[in-house]
Amino acid sequence: MKTDNSSIERVEEFKYLGTTLTNKNSIQEEIKSGLKLGNACYYSVQNLLSSSLLSEKLKIKIYRTIILPLVLYGCETWSLTLREERRLKVFENRVLRRAFGPKRDEVTGEWKKLHNEYFACGKIEKNEMGGACGAYGGGQRGVQGSGGET
Fold this sequence. Notes:
The protein has 150 residues and is mainly alpha-helical. The protein contains six helices and six strands.
């Protein structure tokens, strides 16, 4: 494309302000990149998050302030499919389960692995990622199903 004796090259994708923009408006690579950064960050603070000396409240605060911003950078412009939303939820649940570790059952005394119900029943008020970026997809957009409906 030419403008005022200058030619502008057409590209498939480019990085702008840390976000990869594509000609197909695909965010899959952006999410993959965010999850990769989130994993790297999690493993760098893993010893801190797995410490039994820290309270659950402090672990959530560390997750929200250190890991979550890396994963959700630029999410205000995302319009997610159900598959992409699930990938984000899986990452979040995995990190939180690892941070809180197994819990001893108060009745039987057995050690149990935490399941998603633990995070949904009041221990963590609401989905941390959803709260940080307006239901993942940025404010009012909502989540798109496989048919593209909102």
